[in-house]
Class II aldolase/adducin family protein (Roseiconus nitratireducens), 429 residues
Amino acid sequence: MSDSRDLVHPRDLIMRTMDRIYGYRMTTTSGGNLSIRDDSGDIWISPARVDKGNLTRRDIVRVRADGTVDGIHPPSSEFPFHKAIYQARPDIRAIVHAHPVALVAFSICREKPNTRLFHQAFSVCGRVGFAAYACPGSEQLGRNIAGTFADGCDSVILENHGVVVGGETLAAAFERFEAFEFAGKTLIKAAHLGPVRFLSDTQLAEAAQRSVDFESFTPGAASDRERELRRELCNFVRRGCRQRLLISTEGSFSARLDEQSFLVTPTRKDRESLLLEDLVMVRGTERESGKLASRAAKAHQAIYQRHPAVQAIVFAHPVNATAFSVTDATLDVRTIPESFVFLRDLGRVPVGVQYREDGAIANYVSERSPAALLQNDGVIVTGRSVLDTFDRLEVLESTAEAVINARAIGDVRSMPEEVIEELRIAFNL
């Protein structure tokens, strides 16, 4: 989301980020505020009492280091705690405060989400803290929150209020905020299914230490097929973010180019803003020069090598399906015909298999078993095209949500074996 040289004006960064937060329904028209502290010590912040769903760059307020205000509106009423955080933590240059539903639920229960659900949440969210209640906009609230940040916390639940996160850039703060809310949502969904399984220190370290070791090469002129696949991948990754099937910092999507090569999403790039040139070509032991392939690229490669019919692969973290992946509950896809026809019987991959160099992940999916739950790491879905794979991902998440909802109503009833056999014959499964 950001340029390393900070070429985008703070007004535009705040406006675009708030638009995204509001579009994802992670705040309300009146709720939440964003800020950036620039190199001169000035703080750019969203305004008070302005529609968050219709923010313009002119609405953004600058509070200079000397306390004078530039702007057509007053700064957010929460400015005191933004200022206090910046004073307590010189390393923080941007702050996101909002009232996303899942984290508000934790705040009113006076609990903190355990981000050991999966490695990316634990890594991105940083140290999680809790700040005691004080009146919104008050100096006391600023002291309470800044004290928690001063203790080394990066993502802070506000008692009976919401959440505040900080980061080195607004892009980093947004990614932290999004991952934190995703962890909260997943925990709430998983609580409907049974005991939640958390990752150990060893498992978290294994995930953090994985690397993708490819030599680099410079590809020749792009073929029409490559151009089309780049377009498709970018479009569906963007759609996946907007439908909350993917989040900015997590998930990988790839498409096969030929027997030896495929295109895959890069590592550490905001998924929603991917450009055609950001996608990385992988060919055998090489990857496209000047780019870093997703750390899941070796897993994608192993599946392509083992299963010639697979033309596209996605690793993703949709909330409801991921809730099944962090519990021992079985996700029954024999619920409606579409679910079974698209997904067949869903497998489960033990923790860490996808990180290994032996290609064992390819044993858990095939043309006849196109999807699986990755224990404490979301899902993997394969297909005959980018569209087919994305469609299956949607069906998987819809099925998971329907099953969780059904459990609140009564017993989940699977289709009988004779119906399953009829579907196998009718759809040549």
The radius of gyration is 23 Å. The first helix runs from residue 10 to 23.
